[in-house]
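INTERNAL AUDIT FORM
Audit reference: QA-55
Scope: verify that the stored structure record matches its stored sequence.
Auditor: D.O.
Record contents follow.
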Amino acid sequence: MQSDSALVRFAAQLTIAHQLLNERLFRGELPPIKVSIEHKKRSDSNNILARYVSSSDNKSLYNSDHSIIIIHTIALDGNYFEIINTLVHEMVHQYGEEVLHKPTSYRTNVRHNTTFRDIGIMVGWIYKKTSELEDFEVSDRRRNGFSHPNDYTTAYKDTLNNLGIDHEIITSTIHHDAQDRGFKKRGGIKPKFYIFTCRCNTILKTEDPTVKALCMRCNSKFTLI
């Protein structure tokens, strides 16, 4: 089935990306990990794009002794930078768990904690000044967490954009589960979308007006509306 083979190729590229990102952003300290794709629709309980599953949790969930990073199909919208950035997000969780042996989320509400933020800063994420962050009440920090940085360093952007993996596979593997997930840029600013459709009327929203992709449901080209 064409969609299955496309997802296999996509997952293979992200596994290679994990290896390269480990060397360039995480000092080669992360153990190898399998990246897999899991179906998830916007109608599910939340819009989480991906998740890191530790080896202990993976044993009970998937009967495997290895950690895994799962990318959900709602993340497959053809946006190269955001897809690789989502992978890095999960690698930050992996680094906290497997290298620092520290939790990256508050236990009370699973929001990302200061350990998560500090690893993010290490790889090239930019948050507000530390002094400003520390001025927040502890309860506010725990309620809001540190999920999304305000920006990224130039070196971080260059690393992601020049990673050496197959961009076409990442940008052309567009899944219909991603069409209505309401993606917003970091900081809550809604981007300008270009609307594409295909033979089966799947809607693709993207910031790139030149995107070239095949629908994984009907195998026809997306065309700009």
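Auditor finding: record pair retrieved intact. DSSP finds eight helices and ten strands in the chain.
Action required: none
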